[in-house]
């Protein structure tokens, strides 16, 4: 699976509606409103790179309120859950 993190600038007066419209797009797993340089962050999961073109410029960029997007493709995931799971393998068999 291919995971993309999309940083989205949106019109300030329509952030809740824009976020919900983005969340309703197929392949969008999560949408966060946030403080900082971007207004929204969307996490997208697809099976093929070509699908990103359908989802991001094809759907998300066309949603009213979306001003700009900046897409980042994830290569590898690092999380405390992954680390804990790796170190607990075989721990119950002792």
UniProtKB/TrEMBL annotation:
Xref: InterPro entries: Dimeric_a/b-barrel (IPR011008), Tscrpt_reg_AsnC/Lrp_C (IPR019887)
Name of protein: AsnC-like helix-turn-helix protein
Source organism (scientific name): Actinocrispum wychmicini
Source species, domain of life: Bacteria
Domain Transcription regulator AsnC/Lrp ligand binding: 6-76
